[in-house]
Amino acid sequence: MKSRALQLSRDWIKAERVRRFDKLQVGKFTCKIDKALPNEHMTKVYNSLSREEAGILSQLRTDHTPLNSNLARIGAEESANCTCGTVVESIQHFLFYCPKWRSERNKLREAMADRWGDLAYALGGWSGRRDRRTGKFVDGKQERWKPNVKVLKAMIQYVKDTKRFQPKATAMGEAEVVEEAVAQEIGERDEVGGSL
Length: 196
Prior knowledge:
Layout: H1 2-23, H2 28-33, H3 43-48, H4 51-62, H5 68-73, H6 91-97, H7 106-112, H8 119-122, H9 149-162, H10 169-192
Helix pairs in contact: 7-9
C-alpha cells in the first residue's frame, strides 16, 4: 500500500513537471532538437563532461553560440551570414556543411556515420523521427533514449578543433587596450591629486 502511494506521487510529480515544462515559452530550439524533454537523459552526459565541454554542449543545445546567426539576432553582429560566404552561419551549417571546417570535421563524420546531418542526434537529442520503411522511431523509444556519448565527444572535439567558440583575438586586443587606457587614466588621476 505504501509503495503504491509512493509510486502514484512520483508519477504525479513527473506528470506535473512535464505539464509545466510544456507551458514554458523558452527553450524552443532545445525542444525542437530534443523531443524527449523534460527527462534526465542528459544529466549523466553533462556529469561526465568537463566544464569546458559541458559549456560547449549547452551553448549548442540552447542556440546561444558565438555563431553569426545568434550574434546577429542579439545585435552583436551586422550579418548572420557565415564568413565562407554561402549561407547563414547556423549551428547546422557550422557542424555539417561549412567548407572552412572540412578537415576538422572528419572524426565527427566518422562517429555519426549514417546519421550524418542529423542535428538532434549530434546534440544528444531524441528526434521523434520515424523510419519511413519500418515506421519505428529512429532513436528508439523515448523513455529509453540515451544519447550517443561517442558522437557528443566527437562533436565537442570538432568545436574545439575549429576554435570557433573561443574569443576572437581582436576582441581580446581591444579589451587590453581599454584596460590599459583605464589604468593610465587612474595613474594620471593619482598624479594630479585625485581628479583630472
